[in-house]
Every structure is written in C-alpha cells, then in structure tokens.
Fold this sequence. Notes:
The two termini are about 50 Å apart. By secondary structure, the protein is mostly beta strands. The strands form twelve sheets. It has a 22-stranded antiparallel β-barrel. Strands 10-15-16-13-14 form a five-stranded mixed β-sheet, with no helix packed on it. About 5% of the residues lie in helices and about 50% in strands. The radius of gyration is 33 Å and the shape is globular.
Amino acid sequence: MATTGALAQSVTVSGRVVDEGGSALPGVTVLQKGTTNGAATNVDGSYTLNVSGSSPTLIFSYIGYQTQEVPVNGRSSINVSLAPDSKALEEVVVIGYGTVKKSDLTGSVASVRGEDLTAIPVTNGLEVLQGKVPGLDLTRASGQAGAPLNFNIRGTRSIGAGNSPLILVDGIRYDGPLDVNPNDIASMEILKDATATAIYGSLGANGVILITTKSGGSGKAKVTFNSYYGVSSKNGYADIMSGPEWVALRREARRTVGEWAGPEDDEKIFNPTQLENFRNGIYTDWADEIIGTGSQQNYQVGVSGGTDKLSYYLSTEYFDEKGLLKNDRLKRYSGRMNVGYSILDNLKVSTSLMYTYKDRDIRRDPLNQANKMSPLGRPYDDEGNFLAFPVGDASTLNPLVDEQAGAYENNDINKRFFGNLSVDYTPIENLTVTSRFGVDQYNNRNGLFSATNTIETGANGLSIARAELGNFSRITWENFANYSKSISDNHEISALLGSSIWSEREEIFSAQGRDLLSSTFLFYNLGATQSAYQLGSGLREQSMASFFGRLNYKLLNKYLFTFVMRADGASVLAEGNKWDYFPSASVAWILKEENFLQNVGAISDLKLRLSYGLSGNSSVNAYQTLGGLGRSTYAFDQGSSEVPAYGFYPGALANPRLGWETTATANLGLDFGLFNNRVTGTLDVYQQNTEDLLLPRNLPTSTGYERIIDNVGETRNRGVELQLNTVNVDQSNGFRWTSDFSFTRNKEEVVALADGVERDLNYGDFGLFVGEPISVFYDYEKIGIWQLGQEDEAALNQQQPGDIRVKDQNGDGIITPEDRVVIGNSNPDWTLGVTNRFGYKGVELSFLVFARMGQTIISEAAGSYKIDALENGPVVDYWTPENPTNAYPRPNAGTSRASTRYYSTLQYVDGSFIKVRDITLAYSFPQTIADKLRLSNLRVYATAKNYFILKSEIAPYDPERGGSLSFPMTKQMVFGLNMSF
C-alpha cells in the first residue's frame, strides 16, 4: 500500500516595512494569518519571522496605517510599504454608549490617554488628571496612605444632594476610591456639557468620567512589567512652638493677669517636672517624634495578545504604601482579565473583570495631641523606658502611646469584584446591538481595638473593641443599539436607542464593647468585653430605570447636529415624582470646511460648538421621602431599680412631593488648530442654572419639626475653560519640546433660597447667602489688634489694647452680629496647569506646574493659638506692650479661646498656591540594547512629586491639604522601571 502526503514547508522570511515616504516603521506587527506566530519590526523597520504551512500569508498592521495581507509564495524576502489610514489617523473619542471621531464631537469632552496616564506614579488613577483637564478641580485630601481625592467638574451646583461626578469603568458605574490599576487604563474621557452628559441623565448631572481599560489584539503575546519605589517625607508643616517659645508665651499670659513678674515666678506657673526639664534644657518636638518617612512600591505585570478571533489582556498588581506615621499603611492586590471572542463574524462576546483586595491599617492621627502638648517633657526616660505621662501630670498622655505594642489597631479589609459581560450582535450592516450585564460587589470589615491610656480612650479610660461588617452589591443591565450610515457624500447619520436598569443593596452590622478582658483578643472576641455594649445594623436598597436615545446628523461634512433624550425613574423620590425627562441638543459648524477658510494655511482646524440641555439630580438618602423614626430612651421602673427601655418617635417629616433637582446647561465652544496643528486647543464658555434644589426648608414650630427636605432654591455656575497644546520645537536631530496648558475660571453663586429669603444662617457652619458661592465663610472681619493709645475707642466695644479688632461694617459705632460679612469661600477663582515635555534621543524630561488661586481656607494652625498658654500651639506673632503687632492678641491666662471675642477671625487665610507638582526624568534605552536583552522596550525614570511650592501665603505649610494639621501632605522621590517583551 502506498501513502502520499504533503509536507509543510518551513521558510524564514525577512524584510523591511516603510511608510509611503520610504521611512522605516518600527513596531509594525507581522503576523502569520490564522496563527499566533508573529514578530514586530525593529527601529529600522526590519523583521524576521519563521513561517510554515502549505500557503502562508503575512498580515502587516500598524496604528494609523492600512493593514496589508501578503502571501509568502515561497519567498524569503518581503518588503512592504504601508499606506496611511485616514480613519485610523483621526482620534476616536469614547462617549456614552459608543465612540465618535473627535472631529465630529458637538459636546465638551476632554480626553487623556497615552503617556499622560502613566507619566507619574499614582495611587489613584484619577490623580493624573490634576492640572491637565480644564473644568476639573482636583486635589489630594491628605498625605495619609490611600488618601482620597477631592474633585468636581465645573464647580458645585447642588447644596443638599451630591456633587460627585459619575465614574464609569468600561461602561459600568464605579463608586468609591478608584482602585483600577493605572497601567490598565487605555483612556479617560471627561464629559462636561449637557450634550456630552445627557445620555446618562441624572447620573451625569455633575459631569462624567469614562475610563476604558486596555484590551488585547491579534499577534503573539506581549508581556509588560512596570515597577516603582518611592520615599515620602512631609512637604512642609506648621511651625509649632519650641520649648523656649512656649515658656515665653506662658510667662506672658501670666504676666497679663499679674501672676508672673520674672523668672523667680516660674515655680508658680510650671509643675516640678516641666520646671526641671526647662532648667536642664530638655525639650521635645513631639510632631517631629511622630512624623517619619513613608514609602510607596508597586509591581505590575500585564500580558496581551490574541488571534483574529480572540483577544485578551491579563494583568496583576501589588501596591504597598506606608504613610508618614507608624501603622498608617495600605496594601492592595488586584487582578484584571479582559477577553473578547468572536463567535461568528457578526457575534462577539467580551468580558472585563477586576478583583481587588485591600488591607489597610488606619492610624488615629496623634498630631493634635502632639501640637498642644507641652514641649517640656521627653518621650523616654534615661533608661529608654516609655513615659506614658511625660510632662508631670496624670492626664496628659504621650502622643506616642498608640505606637506601643498591643496598644492600638484599626484594620480595614475590603474585597471587591467588579466587572461586566457584553454581547455585541450585528444582524445587518451598520447596526450593532449590545447587551451588557455588570456586577459591582464588595465586602468590608473594619476592626478597632484601643487599650487604656491611648488617644482613643484617654488617660485611664476603659479599653474599647469594635467590629463593623458591610456588604454592597449593584447589578446593572443595559441594552442598546447603535446604527450608523453614510447616505451619501453629504449626509451621515448615527442613532442610539437603549435602556438601562440598576439596583443596589447595602447591609451593615456593627458591635462594640468596653473593658476587654485581654488585649490579645483585639476585635476578634467582642464577647470578652465587659461593659458599654452597643449593637447596630442597617439596610439600604435603591434602584433606577432609564430609557435613552441619541441622534447624530452630519450635513455636507461641515454641519453637525446631536439630539439626546433620556428618561430616568429613581426609587428614592416620592410617588408621582419618580420619573423625569432630560433632553439636550447641540450643533457644530466645521468652519475649516468653508471655502473662505480652506485656503488659509495658518488655520488647520476650526470648529464652533453650541449646546443646551437639562440634567437631573436625585442624590438624596433612600427613604428620605418617607420620613423617619428616632429612638428614645426611657427609665423603666423594675422593682427597686430602673433599667433603660427604648421607644420610637417620628424623627423626620415625610415629603410626598419630593422630586428632581434639575440643571440647565448652555455651552459655547471653539476647537482650533493652527500652523499645521502645531498649536491646537479648545475654548469653552458655559452657564449652568440649577433649580428645585434638594434642600432643607425651615418649618413653623407649630409643626413640631425644625426642617423638611424640599425642592427649593436655585444656584448658578458660569465659567470659561481653555485647553492649549503646542509643539514648540520638533527638530530632525530628535529634539522635541511640547507644552500643554489647562485653564479654568468658574464663578458659583446661590440665586434663590426657600421662601424668598436672602440668607439662611441655619444651614451648615456658616449659612447660605444669595449672590454668594455655596461654601462661604461668614464672620467678622479682623482688621488688626487694638493698640496702646486706642483705649477709649476700644472701650466702646468693651475691649482693651491687645484684643482683636474687627471692622464695624455698618458704621454705627458698635459691633453686633449684623457686622458679620462673607469673608471668603473655599472654591478657587481659577486654576492653571502647565505641562512641558522635552525629548532628545531617548531622554525625556517633563514637569507640571499647578496653580490654584483665590480660595480661602480655615487654617488649623492659625486658629489654634493658645491665648491662655495652657497648651502649646503654633508659632505666632502675638501682641505685647513691647511688641505692638496687629497679628494675634495678647496672651492672657484669664481667658480662653472659647471666651475670647472674635477669636474665630484668626483662622481664615489665603489658601492660594503655585507648585511644581511633578518632575520626571526618563531614559528609554536604544532598541539595539533592548534587543540584546530580548526586550521590545526598556525605560527607567525618576519622579519628584510635590517637591516645590513656588507661592504660598502660609509657607512652609502646603495649602493643598486644606488647612488641617493631621496627615500632612507628602513629597516623594520615586524611581521606576518599564519594560516589555
């Protein structure tokens, strides 16, 4: 019997890939069709690939160029010239439930991608947006490990409801700190005006941030490894009085009341321990003892690849951040799997899954204790033993007590699963139907143990043990269809129609007790506590259903129209008011396509945009429309003793009319490109009017209730935003310099309040005022200190030299509460970010200068001057007969902060600042070296984060912290490595 067969031939194919001008194209993917066998061109465009099979074909693909398929036909040398792909060259921007070419945008959308996303090492991926997106005001809350971010888009418009932007990761809503690994993010889009956000209805009322994670592509597997390590230290802190400075303050305070006339009187004002330490020169800077150095380290591995049917992206990450204080630490472990598979040519299934495990040790900040502590003490005795009461009394604890073994532990464990499954079906050409199912589920456990003689329990207080458990889940199901068609050269349409429904459930359980039998139990044996038992639990459920549609029409390649409608139904609102409709419309005119501009070489691109629309806000607490009950405790007589008994009473009045808060937004924008797009930018001017605010309204006392949540009041935001990108130098020798500018100015004001009043002093700490921003500071205006020779004038207000002097606003000669005015607000007048990047033959240098100007902050340091000198405090310039300053009042042992008139006026300071936010120096090794190491890319870098404050009225303190002295802002020196193979 004879056997025949065809033997597969193995051929080594090599060649070079160039562009239409003959220049080499490095990084082109060369793939044998139908296999995962592939290679990539090197720096001179050359490649080598072993292929096998009876009739192999090579696929050449590169971003921005048309893909080519070339049969091998037994050849060993194949050179290819790739032609530009005009569609691929035009940037595609992610918008709600779809994508659009940037040139076809009619709304205000900012996009951040590429090197901007990984330019600096960050804990939270959103941090890279600081100073890069006009309209986005973002600051880091503190220097604590895992500290959250404070941010809003185009100011705050709501008073009683939420102002947080909607964040979506791969189309699914994501709440809480963004734990997505920054290296997994492909792009971030920030939607700002009504046309851009209206497709998300009420969820997008405060702006939208769309995060798209990376996906794989056809070709052999690509492995990336990214790592960095950084050292943190405090970036400026308030000056606290040293030992001699505090002694001088204490002496002056007693001199004021006649209790100190010279050093011979020190025995009257210091206890023996402090007096002995003072005479021996023993002083302690307690804050310096507490604040140390921290660190950050991160390791991430990603694998991507696929075939013509399958694409995958897998990654895992370990992140570890240690704060400046001991026992302040965050460890995060995460994994991601993004997979797409084409079952049929018109049917694709994809999934995006993420799991995160966070282990966080939370330190109870000891700096308040440290800053007010007498410096006349020491933390350890001569033998090195810890002194729990170091300043000679039995009530003032050493601020280092929580650092002692077994004294304090506050640990938080969070496990989160987040992901979605999508099915895309294309039944006919140009129509894609998508069904997407999303899950967000996390479990949280917080445990606290604090022993006796800790900051939590106080001197000789009973130990406390507490545990809290919580679980949260949100299910999202969305179905939508996208249709697009080019009817002719002059007419293009695209349409979207869909529905969305989500529901969430949150359960919490807590228990605590005091006087734990053994500290070794921590919070794992609450049954061993012996007193003060407390139990708690809660349930919250809410849901929303939505229907939405969008129509885009392009006429003559220069006139663009967009119409959006969304209907939302929110379970948290009252019956009959749950549903509302949010329409928007926009038009854009591509001026560059007009005949009168087509031949103007200086103008590369010019487009005018105009939009108007409505959005809603229903961010009130669940069940708020139903009223609520309060618990009351009664004494129940049981024989010879009384025991507590509990009952309930109507604690909050129901409002069956509570409905939507609505915002109408008008936006005028201009997109431009000049000098062959060497200068590109966007200018937006907008106004937002918010009505029917979800706000507490005063009630007559006859109702038995103080307030009720109602739809009352109006606010308004007006602003201008400018984004400018320039290519300053682009030389043939490889030197390149580019700059990005981001400027925002926003004016926020309250337009109307309930019942037509001009101010509501009962809301919040400072009240609300028509014509002023929402978050204002309302107080007397300090104009100095009463001086010698002004006794008679000061006496009219029952004051004397050395006291705080405030302005008589109405000129009636006396100071009354009506002399209080708005003296500042917490929002900046304007923000500016300027990024410069320099590159030369593999060397990269970039730096970001960030400015936040015009905001007032409440300074804890300025407002904690201890006028009675019973405690320590910040270094201040206080008044004495010999030092007639206008800064701070005279020390006085006969008064206190609480009883000092107008003391609160000391705390308001200008919080404006300009800082060099990040400086990065990087080096990408030549491809020849990478090839020898069998790598496709090798890069090392060093980043200085938050190192230089160029302007601040309250230096050395970092104003970005917002005035608080707890968990000071950090500066970091980070060293990193990026490599792929």
